[in-house]
Design a protein that fits this description.
By secondary structure, this protein is an all-beta fold. It has no helices and 11 strands.
Length: 123
């Protein structure tokens, strides 16, 4: 399995930007498609974005499309989520996840999860 550690969360004002990182270890990073999920207080964990092992194909939830960019640098074994035009409703714990499937987009498609990093967007 792969171990995942998120970082980069914090407090940001609405309209601002933040970049999350997810460092992977334990397995070859290129073996995995990667994704970001988030969970807001009182809500279920939801899909945010995913990226194939090559980084060529990406997927986004409608709520973040056009504002967030998922990317990866495989030689660094790192996944990123660049978040722009942040809104208070983006406030959540953000989790990175790894999947052995190609093009995963549901929670059950992912095998390994990080501990999460808190993103708080103030209005």
């Amino acid at each position: 399995q792969v171990q995942l550690v998120e970082s980069g969360g914090g407090l940001v004002q609405a309209g601002g930007s933040l970049r999350l990182s997810c460092a992977a270890s334990g397995r070859p990073f290129t073996n995995y498609a990667m994704g970001w999920f988030r969970q807001a207080p009182g809500k279920e964990r939801e899909f945010v974005a995913a990226i194939t092992w090559s980084g060529v194909t990406t997927y986004y939830a409608d709520s973040v499309k056009g504002r967030f960019i998922i990317s990866r640098i495989n030689y660094k074994s790192t996944l990123y989520l660049q978040m722009s035009s942040l809104k208070p409703e983006d406030t959540a714990v953000y989790y990175c996840a790894a999947s052995t499937l190609n093009g995963p987009r549901t929670e059950s498609d992912f095998n390994s999860w990080g501990q999460g990093t808190q993103v708080t967007v103030s209005s």
